[in-house]
Design brief:
By secondary structure, the protein is of the alpha+beta class. Helices cover 27% and strands 34% of the residues.
Length: 352
């Protein structure tokens, strides 16, 4: 029997996205009963609040059909639906007549290339880098409230975080208060060159756009993101991109041609972005060279994987392996797991 040919990548991705389409659950807010299975039905917007997110109804409260529910007082029911943006997975919860809460999956990134071209008059540095989102993710639960609050994993005082800065930029831009509370479940290590803070900021921009019905296009969100931080516009786009300027010029690139995975090595050493650039201005040493000095345990990685690449300012390093040629992890990983002075992750690239 002839071996079946691999389907076109674009068509396969479309099929995968269709297969993972949005899931909905409607539950009676009074009796808390249900849900019960019914035949799936696809909608292009939430029938309660009108949010323009495509989703498929999977279950309903009690034995009621969707049309029965809409004929009743909508405040008695809550709708949960899940959908994918090009880079983020967003779960919205509509209670009564408005969307009240969303859960956003915020991915990390790795730098496949990175070069500092010079210093700009505005204080930023001119860079050229290729970045790739990966499936190592933070999760943010964002909902409307009476004022800003941040719970969960705290990496800095709440009002000194990129999350709060994203809220402030949105409020200044629209001259409107976006009162939200954010709960952060953090998986991406901090000060590791993996973009966790920038990704969390982009997630908040997505969340505010959905919760307050701003209906911003991707390019508009990128413009806002550039006011928050250098890597934030990239996270609005996601996938693999060439980023230039101070990071605000984002050009999508084709995905990795072969399916594969990244082995990611993060030493137990933190490097702050601001300090890394200050050191560069003072010494003129590349981020990759500086990271190997600040985290000498990286030498062990480069001895085993000469093709490893430092991600951004570091100190994290990564190496790509195609599944076709490396269906199993390299044997050296077994020893590294036991003795490596740091964290080790296996992550897949996220395409658009």
């Amino acid at each position: 029997m002839a071996e079946e040919k691999e389907p076109d990548r674009a068509e396969r991705r479309r099929q995968e996205k269709e297969a993972a389409k949005q899931k909905v659950k409607a539950t009676c807010a009074e009796c808390k009963e249900g849900p019960c299975d019914i035949a799936p039905k696809t909608y292009d917007k939430c029938p309660v609040c009108g949010c323009p997110a495509r989703f498929t109804v999977k279950a309903m409260a009690d034995d009621l059909q969707l049309e029965d529910i809409l004929g009743k007082e909508p405040a008695l029911f809550s709708f949960e639906y899940l959908y994918d943006t090009p880079n983020y997975q967003v779960k919205l919860v509509a209670v009564g007549a408005s969307c009240a809460r969303c859960i956003v999956k915020a991915p990390a990134k790795i730098n496949l290339e990175f070069e500092i071209l010079g210093t700009r008059q505005d204080g930023y540095h001119e860079i050229r880098t290729v970045m790739q989102t990966i499936d190592l993710c933070d999760y943010l639960t964002v909902q409307k409230s009476e004022g800003f609050s941040l719970t969960g994993t705290l990496v800095a005082p709440p009002r000194e975080t990129t999350i709060y800065k994203a809220v402030s930029v949105m409020e200044e831009t629209f001259a409107q208060a976006f009162r939200i509370c954010v709960h952060l479940d953090k998986t991406i290590p901090v000060m590791a060159g993996l973009g966790g803070g920038s990704s969390d900021a982009a997630a908040v921009i997505f969340a505010i756009n959905e919760l307050f019905g701003l209906k911003l296009a991707k390019e508009e969100m990128k413009g806002l993101a550039a006011s928050v931080g250098a890597d934030v516009p990239f996270f609005i786009e996601g996938g693999r991109c060439l980023c230039e300027g101070f990071g605000e010029k984002v050009t999508p690139l084709p995905d990795e041609e072969e399916p594969g995975y990244y082995i990611i090595f993060r030493p137990h050493k933190r490097i702050a972005t601001k300090q890394a650039y200050m050191d560069y201005d003072r010494v003129g040493q590349s981020f990759a060279e500086a990271a190997r000095i600040k985290a000498p345990q990286l030498e062990q990685i480069f001895e085993i994987f000469p093709d490893a690449v430092i991600s951004g300012k570091g100190p994290t390093a990564s190496v790509f392996r195609a599944i076709k040629h490396n269906p199993e992890l390299p044997a050296a990983i077994n020893d590294l797991v036991r003795e490596w002075d740091g964290d080790l992750y296996i992550a897949r690239p996220i395409g658009r």
